[in-house]
Structure formats: structure tokens, C-alpha cells
Design goal:
alpha+beta, 5-stranded mixed β-sheet, 4 helices, about 25% strand
Length: about 160
């Protein structure tokens, strides 16, 4: 009876260890908001008959807020960390984005997530109310997380068609 209890306890520990590993590597977000600067961002889904547009808007909400926060902070290096794994050399693109939108990111930002052609690509329109500037972002899902299409890359490469 003791041996069975030890085996059961060991099995529970193994399962718990696997669950923690999965959470740490798969479910935990690879990006998070910093304490400052504060940002004023509204993320919404385009009106659609497809429920996945709303789901995608919910999924990318934190990514969008982190993006705007890093823009407002002038953190080009931090923006490169939001680039999808299939993208190389995001640095020059990130630096240009900071130059173009840093000032605008200090005001209210409206983001509308659009219907995507496939379940791992979505675009969004970004309107910076402070300056009236508009931008289009590409979201790419890879490894269970949404990323930004920054730099050179083909996120569809290697995917089954």
C-alpha cells in the first residue's frame, strides 16, 4: 500500500511539473506592459459576422498596448522584441516607427483589428488622435503567441498550405 501511495504521489508531481513547464513556455505571454509611460489605447474588432475577429482583438490587446507604450517611450530596442520569430533585422523598422509615431503615441490611440485572410495573420488600423496619423499593423501568430510583422521575413514560409 505504501509503494502505491509513493507512486501516486510521484505521478502527481510529474504531472504538476509538466503543467508548469507548459504554462511557462506556452501560455505565459512573452511581453508585458511596463509601469511607465502610461498609454491610452482602445482596441476593438471590426464589425464582422465572424466571431474570431473579436477573439483576435482580445488576444492582441496586450501586444498593442505594449507596442504603443514602447513607441511612446522611444524604445526601438523594445519594439524589436515584439517582432515575429520569422522576421529578421527588425531594428531599422523599429527605429523608423519610433521616429514616425513617438509623439503621436503619447495621446489617445484607436486600434481596429480587421478580419484576417487566415487564422495566423491579422491586420489592424491604428489611428493616433494626437496627430491624426494612421498606420497599419500586421499581426502574426507563431508559437501560440501573436507578434508584430517588423523587418524582413515571410511568416508563411514553412506552413502547410
Amino acid at each position: 500500500m505504501k509503494k502505491r501511495g509513493v507512486l501516486l504521489c510521484g505521478g502527481v508531481l510529474v504531472v504538476a511539473g509538466i503543467a508548469v513547464t507548459v504554462w511557462w513556455n506556452w501560455l505565459r505571454s512573452p511581453y508585458a506592459l511596463a509601469d511607465a509611460p502610461k498609454v491610452d489605447v482602445t482596441v476593438r474588432a471590426e464589425k464582422s459576422v465572424y466571431p474570431d475577429v473579436r477573439e483576435t482583438a482580445d488576444d492582441v490587446d496586450t501586444l498593442v498596448r505594449v507596442y504603443v507604450q514602447r513607441l511612446a517611450a522611444g524604445d526601438a530596442r523594445g519594439l524589436t522584441e515584439l517582432a515575429g520569430p520569422a522576421y529578421e533585422q527588425p531594428g531599422p523598422t523599429a527605429a523608423k516607427l519610433v521616429r514616425d509615431y513617438r509623439e503621436a503615441a503619447a495621446g489617445h490611440v484607436e486600434v481596429t483589428v480587421l478580419e484576417g485572410p487566415v487564422d495566423y495573420f491579422n491586420r489592424a488600423t491604428v489611428v493616433y488622435e494626437e496627430t491624426g496619423q494612421r498606420q497599419t499593423l500586421l499581426f502574426v501568430k507563431d508559437g501560440g503567441h501573436w507578434w508584430l510583422g517588423l523587418g524582413d521575413g515571410d511568416p508563411a514560409a514553412g506552413r502547410e498550405q
